[in-house]
């Protein structure tokens, strides 16, 4: 429930503080006194778009504050707690608008984005403006009215989430399908490239061995010649073989090492040299025994390397990089092969998501159909009381023949009206006059208001164009609503104002070359005077006052 509203430096409002009570409160005053300015202020503190031109002349900043009681609003209390904005069981909103165009919002003293103020609005107040009937001709508004009464909010939220998930999967599937032909061609190319490389033993070790063997076989003659010459110099050369020279020197030193002990080191070194020469000679003999001039093997290796070089040039890499390339192409081929599996899985998931959306849409459809006739009957009864005696309302709910759905379901919802006997029902915009449309809108607002979960309803001159006994009925409807919800009504009709439990009078005063708005809470006698003014204008008579008093007494019974 709205407890208080404070407005500073907004338009003609300099400093205004209002308190509100449960039940029905009427705001009255002369035309242009600033009654709707209070609704504007409340809309701003609840996140509506602001303009620096709204700031009072001479001020640098406008400021609006509002307090809400959470006792009977568990929805808002839970939301505040979930967003870590709760504090001492209260909801205090503050909005500032600066001359430089900056705007700030606060909830319980914490700075928040303006979008969060709007979320508080959705959980606290419904504001019905004086031109609300103009939106009634839109199919979207008609559908929303039916969904409010059918209590479809939770289902629609679930459908909205499911629909967006389905839509995202649908877009992903369409993208994959559009790429399928291109991917198929790429997959075929990769398959050819991988198969071509698979015919070779593509490991780093194998390629290094090929390169080494090719080098050895290509230079085999030179290698044999060098090995034979070395073996000859070590052992076979007459009188100049290294083995013989060292062995002869070793023998002479051994004979004399008893005379010269210092020869012992040289003897040891030469013995090691003899052993090393012997091992070297054995190595060369073994090499010569096994090396072979094999032109056929050389041709085979060079042929394989030639093919590998051709493939490497084709892929713009070196031969040594072919193993890494093979791994890369194989991985990409596997990924593309798996994309077909992914596509099948996505199609299956999409089918399940579509089934979920359809199930939710059907459930919403059933609730709409079930609600449509009783609601139409209620609205029809209400508009008869509002000076459309022959008025009949029908609510048409038609499901799409192909069960095509959106985030709003799969239905076309239309509110149809018949204002004269014998005429067929037709669309509101084509059948109802402007005045009739306003009364139908008011009837719908009254009938559906009790179905809304917010604790506060504000009606801003929604009774324009209505008078006499119809106005009294409107007032009675609003007063009845006030038994379950707080109702604040801005009105020019004495019949409506008299029905209120509380009455605030708005006046515009000119002081010191500036304009101010003053709001007074009226006691019983002041209410009689104000209602008399609304009945009789400027020159009030005792008869007018008596009429006003009688009207007030009857309304309060």
TrEMBL record:
Record key words, sorted: ATP-binding, Coiled coil, DNA damage, DNA repair, Nucleotide-binding
Task: Give residue ranges for domain RecF/RecN/SMC N-terminal.
Answer: 12-509
Coiled-coil boundaries: 336-363
Q: Which domain of life is it from?
A: Bacteria
Q: Does the keyword DNA damage apply?
A: yes
Family stated for the protein in its record? Belongs to the RecN family.
Q: In UniProt terms, what function does this protein have? A: May be involved in recombinational repair of damaged DNA.
**Cross-referenced PANTHER family, in alphabetical order?**
DNA REPAIR PROTEIN RECN
What name appears for this protein in its UniProt entry?
Answer: DNA repair protein RecN
């Amino acid at each position: 429930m709205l407890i208080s509203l404070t407005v500073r430096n907004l338009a003609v409002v300099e400093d205004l503080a209002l308190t509100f009570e449960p039940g029905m409160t009427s705001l009255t005053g002369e035309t242009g006194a600033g009654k709707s300015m209070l609704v504007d202020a409340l809309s701003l503190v609840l996140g509506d778009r602001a303009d620096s031109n709204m700031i009072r002349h001479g001020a640098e900043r406008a400021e609006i504050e509002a307090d809400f009681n959470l006792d009977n609003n568990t929805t808002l209390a839970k939301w505040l707690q979930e967003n870590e904005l709760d504090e001492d069981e209260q909801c205090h909103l503050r909005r500032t608008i600066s001359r430089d165009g900056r705007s700030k919002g606060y909830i319980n003293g914490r700075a928040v984005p303006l979008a969060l103020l709007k979320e508080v609005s959705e959980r606290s107040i419904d504001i019905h403006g004086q031109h609300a009937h103009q939106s009634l001709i839109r199919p979207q508004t008609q559908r929303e009215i039916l969904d409010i009464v059918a209590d479809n909010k939770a289902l629609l939220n679930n459908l909205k989430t499911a629909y967006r998930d389905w839509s995202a999967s649908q877009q992903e599937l369409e993208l994959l399908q559009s790429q399928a032909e291109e991917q198929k061609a790429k997959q075929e190319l990769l398959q050819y490239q991988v198969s071509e490389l698979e015919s070779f033993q593509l490991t780093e070790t194998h390629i290094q061995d090929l390169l080494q063997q090719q080098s050895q076989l290509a230079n085999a003659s030179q290698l044999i010649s060098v090995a034979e010459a070395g073996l000859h110099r070590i052992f076979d050369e007459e009188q100049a073989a290294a083995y013989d020279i060292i062995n002869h020197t070793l023998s002479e030193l051994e004979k004399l090492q008893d005379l010269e002990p210092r020869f012992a080191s040289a003897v040891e070194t030469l013995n090691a040299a003899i052993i090393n020469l012997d091992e070297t000679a054995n190595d060369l003999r073994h090499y010569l025994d096994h090396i072979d001039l094999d032109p056929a093997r050389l041709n085979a290796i060079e042929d394989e390397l030639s093919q590998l070089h051709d493939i490497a040039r084709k892929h713009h890499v070196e031969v040594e990089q072919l193993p890494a390339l093979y791994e890369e192409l194989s991985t990409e081929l596997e990924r593309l092969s798996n994309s077909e599996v992914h596509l099948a899985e996505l199609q299956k998931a999409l089918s399940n998501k579509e089934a979920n959306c359809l199930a939710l849409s059907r459930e919403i459809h059933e609730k709409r159909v079930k609600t449509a006739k009783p609601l139409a009957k209620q609205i029809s009864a209400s508009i008869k009381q509002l000076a459309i005696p022959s008025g009949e309302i029908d609510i048409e709910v038609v499901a799409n023949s192909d069960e095509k759905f959106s985030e709003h379901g799969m239905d076309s919802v239309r509110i149809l009206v018949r204002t004269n006997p014998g005429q067929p029902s037709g669309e509101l915009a084509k059948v109802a006059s402007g005045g009739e449309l306003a009364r139908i809108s008011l009837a719908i607002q009254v009938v559906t208001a009790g179905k809304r979960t917010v604790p506060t309803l504000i009606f801003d001159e929604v009774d324009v164009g209505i008078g006499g006994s119809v106005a009294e009925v409107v007032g009675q409807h609003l007063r009845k609503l006030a038994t379950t919800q707080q109702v604040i009504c801005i009105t020019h009709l004495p019949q409506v104002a008299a029905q209120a439990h509380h009455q605030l009078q708005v006046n515009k005063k000119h002081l010191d070359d500036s304009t101010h708005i003053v709001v007074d809470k009226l006691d019983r006698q002041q209410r009689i005077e104000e209602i008399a003014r609304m009945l009789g204008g400027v020159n009030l008579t005792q008869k007018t006052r008596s009429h006003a008093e009688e009207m007030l007494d009857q309304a309060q019974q």
